[in-house]
TrEMBL record:
InterPro entries: SAM-dependent_MTases_sf
Keyword field contains Transferase: yes
Gene Ontology MF term list: methyltransferase activity
Organism this protein belongs to: Lysobacter brunescens
Record's keyword annotation contains Protein transport: no
Protein name: Methyltransferase domain-containing protein
GO biological process: methylation
Keywords from the named record: Methyltransferase, Transferase
A Pfam family of this chain: Methyltransf_23
CDD domains: AdoMet_MTases (cd02440)
Length: 310
């Protein structure tokens, strides 16, 4: 689908009374969720990548208290954290998007990956299997993430991650996966300040951000730098409530966490030759021209910050 047609369709759905329901149905039949097994599999891959990067700086999930920003349609990452022994997982979303059928599919797919989960976190497979057995049995009676996870998962939606109501210092790890690119810049600043208080001294934040043009996933005729040719005024026409994109670059996202007081201990951002070539062939909007091409062209970043305390 041409990206402009997708943008106009989503813009229209965004103002209709039943727009959210219609948008979800279109996503399931024509859009990114028409193959939910693939999407859930990618999220499990993302969880494994997050865990390995956290392990690289000495952080473990078992026994930890976590908060996820942006729950989405199924709690793949919180469920995986529960299965490997997390003590508590709060997952917050501005909109109540969780779908019971997708959650049940997610549970079934996680059941196929138990040895992988145990190995990734270096925990006893028997313990993971025991938690999974309880999860699977409870999911036959309830669609509530807390009920089916021995009370470990706390799903809150609608909820604002910048005003969670959780006690200061009560969280070991705050994380997000493909969320911050969809959050307005001022809200990201509030989230960083709030999580600086939520995370205990010596605690951590992990954010994986896809900061490329998401319209490129629907339209093979464009690439992930396409939206950099538009001014803010022009881009406002194509932005919509179902696919809001703030267009922040990777270094700006990392700098935002640093400005909030986190020590950045991992930053995976790097310029790919293909993206540099694509950028050089484009007419860039004036507001982006002050950014060095090696920074402007980056479309993905994972970063970890540590709360140094007072």
């Amino acid at each position: 689908m041409h990206w402009k047609l997708k943008g106009l369709l989503q813009k229209t759905l965004g103002v209709l009374p039943a727009g959210e329901t219609l948008h979800y149905r279109l996503q399931r039949h024509l859009g990114g969720m028409r193959n939910p097994r693939r999407e859930i599999g990618l999220k499990i891959d993302d969880w494994e990548g997050m865990v390995k990067q956290l392990h690289g700086v000495g952080v473990r999930i078992p026994g930890a208290r976590l908060m996820e920003i942006g729950s989405g349609w199924y709690p793949a990452l919180p469920l995986a954290c529960y299965l490997v022994g997390a003590a508590r997982v709060h997952t917050l979303d501005l909109n109540r998007l969780l779908k019971p059928d997708l959650m049940r599919l997610c549970i079934a797919m996680l059941g196929e990956q138990l040895p992988r989960l145990a190995s990734t976190c270096d925990v006893d497979l028997a313990d993971v299997e025991a938690r999974y057995a309880r999860l699977r049995e409870a999911a036959n009676r309830s669609d509530d993430p807390g009920t089916i996870s021995d009370g470990v998962i706390d799903y809150r939606a609608p909820a604002d991650a910048a005003a969670s109501g959780l006690p200061d210092g009560s969280i070991d790890i705050v994380f997000s996966n493909s969320v911050l690119e969809h959050v307005p810049p001022d809200a990201i600043a509030r989230i960083h300040r709030a999580t600086r208080n939520l995370v205990r001294p010596g605690g951590w934040v992990f954010h994986s951000v896809n900061c490329g043009d998401h319209y490129a996933y629907a339209d093979p005729g464009i690439h992930q730098l396409n939206y950099l040719q538009f001014s803010d005024a022009q881009w406002a026409f194509w932005n919509n409530r179902f696919l809001y994109q703030n267009r922040l670059r990777a270094h700006q996202l990392v700098d935002g966490a640093r400005d909030a007081g986190f020590d950045i201990v991992l930053d995976t951002s790097h310029a790919r030759p293909q993206r540099l070539q694509q950028l050089q062939a484009m007419a860039i909007a004036e507001q982006f021209r002050h950014i060095a091409p090696e920074k402007l062209c980056i479309t993905t970043v994972d970063f970890i910050g540590r709360n140094p305390g007072a």
